[in-house]
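Most newcomers find our protein records easier to grasp once they have seen one. There is nothing in a record beyond a sequence line and a structure line. Getting from the letters to the tokens is the skill we practise here. An example says more than a description, so a record of this kind follows:
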Amino acid sequence: MSKAVKTLLKILDLERIEQNLYRGESPDVGWQRVFGGQVIGQALVAAQRTIEPERVVHSLHGYFMRPGDPAVPIVYEVDRIRDGKSFTTRRVVAIQHGHAIFSMSASFQIVEPGLEHFIEMPDIPGPEELPSEKRLAAQFMDHAPENIRKYWQRERPIELRPINLDHYISKKKLKPRQDIWFRATSKLPHDPAIQQAVLAYASDMTLLDTSLFAHGKSIFDSDLQAASLDHSIWFHRPVKMADWHLYTQDSPNSSGARGFTRGSIYSADGKLVASVAQEGLIRQRRDKIDKSRIAGG
């Protein structure tokens, strides 16, 4: 198991401090704020710890309210809203420094059969036809800004293989859609709860960036304030995160300093395993705009 995956599993293994209260840590990766996917994954784990094993999450809906501080633990408080015959509902609030930084509602269901259909996966190159992250960093990121190179060179628990690299090496305005293959860099425990928590963690990667394609922008741009505002996931089918999955994304709208993005996650054999929707803040920094106007006369 890779060191990065071990670290991910460790941060998802919350400490129980009291009934319905759990504590999570953040890895030391030099970020100024906690990665949103980490908070989503930890909140889901907190809810899972109050659920019978035969019930699995089928949807979650979360709101980010404050940036997380990676230097201090996050406390997760679970409210057991409802325990029904088929469905169970939980609400989780993540707390730091006495304030809520994230809230989430999640619904769990006993596994049962039913009608099935799904929209087919796009016909695109497979992950084996694309450069690995190491090759990507070595060959394609020479002309990318330093902060982007550092991001791609750092060891992570999730490997990404984008279909198109234009966004990372140019400022061209592109269609607001992208396709990315991803997988965990090592095998994970077979526990469906862990698999779903890791999927929740990975689902926050690259989504916000897609809403910036149409503007020739990136979340790494210094003149932008970018952050996830809300995040929803619908879990359709079981996942094995060590296998390749396709994350196909499109952003139908940006307005009001917010960008909206949708995502569909497919297994390598073409089955739709999850759907994602997110709105993020994409505010232009006023100080950067003013300096640009002064420089331009």
User: Anything to note?
Assistant: Confidence is low (pLDDT under 50) at residues 292-297.
